[in-house]
Write a structure and sequence with these properties.
The protein is of the alpha/beta class. Among the domains are: 145 residues; 118 residues, no CATH class. It has 20 helices and eight strands. It has an eight-stranded mixed beta sheet with strand order 3-2-1-4-7-6-8-5, with helices on both faces. The longest helix is centred in the last third of the chain and has 31 residues. The radius of gyration is 23 Å and the shape is globular.
Amino acid sequence: MSPQPNENTPETKGRIGKEYHAHVEFAPAAESAVQQQLAAHKCKQQVSWDGRIIVSRKGWAVRVAAIIGIAIIAAYNLYEGFLLQDPLVAYSTLMPVHALIIFIVGWIFYRNPAKGQAGDDLVSVIIPVYNQKGMIEIVIDAIYRSTYRNIEVVAVNDGSKDGSKEILDMLAHKYHPHLKVIHKENEGKRKAVATGFYASSGKYIVLIDSDSIVDERAITEFMKTFNSDPKIGAVVGYAKVWNANKNTLTKCQDVWYDYAFNIHKTCESTFGNVMCCSGCLAGYRREAIADFIPYWVQAKIHNSDDRDLTTYTIAPSWAKKGMAPKLASLVQSPLVKKLADSMADYDDSEDRALTAHTIVEWKTVYVATAIVYTDVPDKIKGYLKQQKRWKKGYVRSNFYVSAFFWRKNPLMSLIFYTEFMATFTAPLIMLTVFMYEPLVLGNYWVPAAFVLGSLLTGLAQGLDYKFRDPGAKNWKYKPLMNLVSSFVLSWMVFPALWNYRKNEWLTR
């Protein structure tokens, strides 16, 4: 490893606290290995000087065609619903309209917020770790390749049993004194994150999952964003799939991630209301979540992290009062307190809750130039387990957010409540479209139109991915992923509700 910097020189002396948390260079062999793997996954999506995600003319042609096509489908569904006097067919129009709003806002109005100066404030990078021996070394190595130099890294081993402890100890020696490793008993992701928070001292907190590899400029882009607007309390990066080309399942997830971040989160970010700063790469102003951490840690069930922090960041003052035990007497609504307790007690909603607790008093935004590569489930069983956990966290945190989100931008509120309502009504719509309409009413065109619309929408989304990122190879899987979402993921709400009180963290 290259020599450590002299901490007593003017060039390396930190400006925050008494200790300088220096950037540490790789040993040549380790750097080469990480660079080779990152080069194979390199994102080729680009952002213009004014913050627009660059799309070719062909891409814009696809976008215009998609907007027109969805508008026609929505109008036709609404017309047929009234003609047949079928409220469920008319109701199904809501989702095309919802998609239309997201496309228009995300494609046309989003601007990447990383426009300020990065500065040199101390950034604390916190990594909760549990049984991640296969990836934790490259995860931490990648952090130390960051172009942002004033960082401290806190890795919290939450009682791993697979040899992660020994690897972390080796890395602590390798990056001494700039990596702090904490070993604790297994208590869940929420307590691991909170342990790292209390052991950190940075003005800004960056959370990285132990299976996610950050791009060298990601933290710099976060800091440029924070310094561009003092009202920004939380940021989320662009997650790409690390093992995208392993099999059909990972390829489908690759296109799903692209849509989730570069279409859906771009829309939310335009309103300053990203609903989930995903745990694979999220950043927070310390002051935005500091009051929530004690409440989070003391909850009786050890289960919540990125969703919880998101929720806290966006919550209004009156709701935040209900989240701190010492202020319990000031809670204005017992229902809000009950919903907050339900959300904060579980690890399955940690990213959404942290985000949602930031949103009313702070902006939460998506930074398209802060890239992270995350390992996803490559087997059906692990994937369904992940989706059930995510669905539980989504439902749990959104029940809480619903208590105050109507105060937000009307269009963003429409998007939020439509999505949340669709979580519970989508199975009913599927039964209506594929059972009631053809078998009872004889309207065989309804399921055909549904499938065709889903495939065409997926094709447009996939082509948009291809025209934004010339290196995208899996764009053609988006139509298939749309069918998976309709026929499989929409039904995950039932096992999620059935296991609502069961605490889970890990995917695999």
